[in-house]
């Protein structure tokens, strides 16, 4: 009986339905957009490549030994001398490998991608926290951005911008932005309503309440979101290397194709140490916010 019902459904219900050409529609749209908005895509390509190249040149302008000391000083200022010493040793190991230049290129790509993702995520998170309609629209879009495989991003992006570092940056922005939006919205929604009511009782405008009450109280959660944005941006370096993104991603992709264990290990070690640097420094800066300090004193 079950087999008969299944065969009947397949014969008369499912089988007659035509295949929906969603992929064909998307391909047609991408091809149309590439021709119709060519000037805009060229401007984006030029701007992102300009930021990436100049930041990479700036990071490589100083000798590696001086940069190691600067990274150690930054970590010391963010968290303390222990972190500074650890970061200094870690970056010294990176400088000892043959891939210091590629590491700085990767850091440049991560910083550019994360900065743009953060500039987009925070306003969107604020809008989602202040408006239920914006939140309802943003939630499925963010779910789509987070669950769609990263390789799928690269197909239309490469069609629009060709191969190179720019497709990697754009795919990284799309992949890394959702946590920033979600945690910004979460931090603002978790602000105590009584504190907001007190501000309203003193006649503060909504903009002033947002700037002087909500954002400072939500800053630790927002900083956690920024940390996640940076970490996700760094996790995309290998995938970006597959489309000519340069940096450590290209080294790892090339070593995978050649089965070069030494090159893959050195580049992977550099990625790990760079991730530790970015993670610990952003966490240290987050711990220095007034709300985080007050929470520590309350404990």
UniProtKB/TrEMBL annotation:
Pfam hit, one: BPD_transp_1
Domain named ABC transmembrane type-1: residues: 103-282
Keyword annotations: Cell membrane, Membrane, Transmembrane, Transmembrane helix, Transport
InterPro entries: MetI-like, MetI-like_sf
Membrane topology: Multi-pass membrane protein
CDD domains: TM_PBP2
UniProt-recorded Gene Ontology molecular function terms: amine transmembrane transporter activity; carnitine transmembrane transporter activity
Family: Belongs to the binding-protein-dependent transport system permease family.
Name recorded for this polypeptide: Glycine/betaine ABC transporter permease
